[in-house]
């Protein structure tokens, strides 16, 4: 049995709001949100780690490119546990790379590097970890997307209203780059 807590983000959460409290979460039972065609599940965040890191999964179907964005103060890890994900990244000198990551592959994106990804196979899953001096951004997903108690992917894609994209950069260290062009060919 997993305990439930009330937090400032949710009336029901399996993640304790206070630091220094050990806890366990059963598979898929973290704080969940739908964003675009994906299900994001947060297992640990800034409140539990003194803003040192977060830990989340993203599951989704084969789909469109997630919009290019960067994090001024946050490094991000992509570890694929199922399926295939194409990671696009640009370094600080403007050199772009892309890499198809499959189960067991790892990608690292340093802070300030524009990046995006596209899920290439249905039923793909990414384990994400973000860390940096600016804190963590795990609550971005439910604030841009929509919190859900469902365990599966959204029945209909959840596309945020355009004005919501402007509300997240300062609070969650996510800066969207709508005019960014990928020159890598895929």
Automatic annotation (TrEMBL):
Gene3D superfamilies: Jelly Rolls (2.60.120.10). Pfam families: Cupin_2 (PF07883). This is Quercetin 2,3-dioxygenase. Residues 60-119 form the Cupin type-2 domain. It comes from Streptomyces galilaeus.
């Amino acid at each position: 049995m997993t305990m439930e807590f009330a937090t400032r983000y949710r009336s029901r959460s399996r993640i304790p709001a206070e630091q220094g409290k050990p806890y366990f979460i059963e598979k898929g039972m973290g704080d969940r949100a739908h964003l675009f065609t994906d299900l994001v599940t947060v297992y640990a965040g800034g409140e539990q780690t003194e803003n040192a890191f977060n830990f989340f999964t993203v599951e989704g179907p084969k789909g469109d490119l997630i919009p290019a964005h960067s994090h001024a103060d946050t490094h991000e890890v992509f570890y694929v546990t199922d399926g295939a994900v194409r990671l696009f990244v640009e370094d600080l000198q403007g050199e772009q790379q892309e890499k198809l990551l499959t189960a067991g592959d790892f990608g690292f994106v340093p802070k300030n590097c524009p990046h995006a990804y596209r899920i290439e196979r249905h039923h793909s899953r990414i384990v994400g970890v973000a860390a940096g001096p600016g804190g963590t951004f795990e609550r971005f997903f439910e604030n841009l997307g929509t919190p859900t108690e469902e365990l599966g992917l959204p029945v209909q894609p959840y596309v945020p209203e355009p004005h919501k994209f402007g509300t997240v950069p300062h609070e969650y260290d996510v800066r969207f780059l709508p005019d960014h062009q990928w020159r890598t060919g895929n």
